[in-house]
Amino acid sequence: MSSTRTLAVNGIEIFLREQGQGPLVLLCHGWPELSYSWRHQLKALAEAGYHAVAPDMRGFGRTSAPAEVEAYTILHTVGDMVGLVAALGADTAVIVGHDWGAPVAWHAALFRPDIFTAVAGLSVPPAQRGRGRPLDTLAREGIHDFYWQYFQQPGVAEAEFEADVDFTMHAIFSKTFAKAGMSLFVKPGLGFLGDRGVPRPLPPWMDASELALFVENYRASGFRGGLNWYRNLDRNWDLTAPWQGARIQQPALFIAGSRDEVVTGLIGAKRVADMERIVPNLRRKLIIDGAGHWIQQERADEVSAALIEFLREVGY
């Protein structure tokens, strides 16, 4: 059974779940998730002889949510993980990230190879820093309805998601965006969640009590903190200029689902295919057949087994 505590780290209070003793493995969740998203991996990693730690990331759940939008850059989120390693009494860790947590993990490995000796990314491959700011690039390409853009104006997406948190979490955790009546492109008048007349059944990998924990947390915290991560997309591009063209040299693992829109789209598929250019020491690229985006919950046993195999392979 995992235990919980809160630590003062990098100027904020970080709530975390942890289980086991041994080498440290940090598990970074994405949006709109929580440390609880790693409940299956915490148990499996602990049983395999690791100290598994999953924080509520900055702005999520019971971790501090600074008021300023600019307090959610990639430097802040990586800094949180650097500080958390030290607060846990460790010198090094393997870092694992899913969804928005994956860019945190990839950048942590890039920025601090002395601390993060190996890295695993789930669902989101590492991206080379583009030629221009991401939001500017979308606009230049004539795209104005992508969900990143919808999330930019403070208060708009918050109002949609917080109007009925139970519906929101049902919709987002539905097996695929398509079946949930959702799309990564926002239709006028429908918001991100899409047509509310489309049924939103619970996915088979989540029961009502598990969903209730997410709903309870988001009713308490709201969605602003997590959405502020998206509001730093262009700022992150500016801040990462010193790492233009840099590669992640540590041993790496990538896991995704074959039905995940993030990796099946044209850009995502190309990034997956080209990963070795950015991560030359990629040990495995595991695409789990039939799986969707919420991979560590949906296919918990396969993800846990792949992580443990990777950790042992790299001698951790």
Short description:
This protein is α/β, with parallel strands linked by helices. It has 15 helices and eight strands.
Task: Characterise the protein shown here.
By secondary structure, the chain is an alpha/beta fold. It has a single domain (3-313), classed as 3-Layer(aba) Sandwich (Rossmann fold). The chain contains 15 helices and eight strands. Strand 3, helix 1 (39-47) and strand 4 form a beta-alpha-beta unit. The longest helix has 14 residues, at 74-87.
Strand content: 15-25%
Low-confidence stretches: none
Shape from CA axes? globular
CATH superfamily: Alpha/Beta hydrolase fold, catalytic domain
What pattern of helices and strands is seen along the backbone?
EEEHEHEHEHHHHHHHEHHHEHH
- What structural class is derived from the secondary structure elements? alpha/beta
Count of domains: 1
Q: What is the topology, as strand order, of the major beta sheet?
A: 1-2-4-3-5-6-7-8
CATH structural fold name: Rossmann fold
CATH class bucket: Alpha Beta
Output mean pLDDT. 94
Number of beta-strand segments:
8
Number of helices: 15
* CATH-derived architecture: 3-Layer(aba) Sandwich
Strand-helix topology:
Layout: E1 3-9, E2 12-19, E3 24-28, H1 39-47, E4 51-55, H2 74-87, E5 93-98, H3 101-111, E6 116-122, H4 134-140, H5 147-150, H6 156-162, H7 165-173, H8 208-221, H9 224-230, H10 233-239, E7 252-257, H11 261-264, H12 266-273, H13 275-278, E8 282-288, H14 295-298, H15 300-313
Parallel strand pairs: 3-4, 3-5, 5-6, 6-7, 7-8
Antiparallel strand pairs: 1-2, 2-4
Helix pairs in contact: 1-15, 2-3, 7-8
